[in-house]
Specification:
This protein has a single domain, classed as Alkaline Phosphatase, subunit A, CATH 3.40.720.10. About 30% of the residues lie in helices and about 15% in strands. The protein contains 9 helices and 8 strands. It is globular and about 55 Å long.
Length: about 270
């Protein structure tokens, strides 16, 4: 499972260090959300604003690497136990997390926002031995799938892989077709939403909606009347580190109109066509 550790190690922080430590240009400071380690460093929880300096950031990164290595070792122990008990080949393994996390990107540590690092999670699926026989494409085994997926897709995927009936009311889609053919067309967009939580020091908006496509992330922050307070647009082809909010650029007006329409249509309109 060393790929988890490698994912963190290969981030090229030094290349864009100044921009890496700053919020995206064109974005207000409140968009980042509360700084999560504040609850560990003061007795007042999130009530006092705090940002880590470089020395503290390196210490936080050291701790994060240590925790990842620890979890990596525990996963290895579980897999080894399965092998010792002759259960490994008959066991379906799924590894993911409940949310992403900023490791100092934009000078922020935490997950209380709609930026990509907060909403992106690892998803590793190891098929049980019997499932390999049903996968006809050689490209599927050991493949890296870049299609857009969501947490709600995991349950229907497990149902299909375990031969269980799926309820009609599920909002997710089984990833089995994608596992069998990683290059097939899949979801055009995935969605997330956020309301302020009790610990948010600055409560600026009522609710925020975001849509992620293969290239863009667009977010709208609404007041209590449903009016747009603020917009955010990131173009990951041109700006993979989210250094600039491009929502006010005239050349992106048509893109914003399209992405706004996606939010209004909702996730139901973008389920994969099997």
């Amino acid at each position: 499972m060393q790929t988890i550790t490698a994912k963190c190690v290969v981030r090229n922080y030094a290349r864009h260090w100044a921009a890496f430590r700053q919020p995206p240009s064109g974005s207000p400071k409140w968009v980042s959300g509360d700084y999560e380690p504040a609850q560990y460093s003061t007795r007042n929880g999130y009530e006092k604003p705090r940002r880590a300096d470089e020395e503290q950031s390196r210490e936080l990164m050291h701790g994060h690497y240590a925790s990842i290595s620890y979890i990596d070792a525990q996963v290895g122990r579980i897999l080894e136990a399965l092998k010792v008990r002759n259960l490994y080949e008959n066991t379906l393994v799924v590894l993911t997390s409940d949310h992403g996390f900023h490791d100092g990107e934009h000078g922020y540590w935490g997950k209380h926002n709609l930026w990509d690092a907060s909403l992106s999670v690892p998803l590793l699926i190891r098929l049980a031995g019997g499932h390999h026989d049903s996968i006809t494409s050689d490209k599927a085994i050991g493949s890296h799938v870049t299609a857009l997926t969501e947490h709600v897709d995991i349950y229907p995927t497990l149902c299909d892989l375990c031969g269980l009936a799926k309820p009609d009311w599920l909002e997710g889609d089984s990833l089995l077709p994608l596992i069998e053919d990683p290059g097939r067309p899949w979801k055009q967009a995935v969605f997330a939403h956020r309301k302020h939580m009790w610990h948010d020091r600055l409560k600026v908006y009522d609710i925020a909606h975001t849509v992620r496509t293969g290239r863009y992330r667009y977010s709208e922050y609404l007041d209590g009347k449903g009016e747009v307070l603020y917009k955010e647009l990131f173009d990951y082809r041109e700006d993979p580190l989210e250094e600039e909010n491009r929502a006010e650029r005239p050349e992106y007006a048509c893109i914003i109109e399209e992405l706004t329409g996606m939010i209004k249509r909702g996730w139901q309109a973008f389920r994969p066509k099997n």
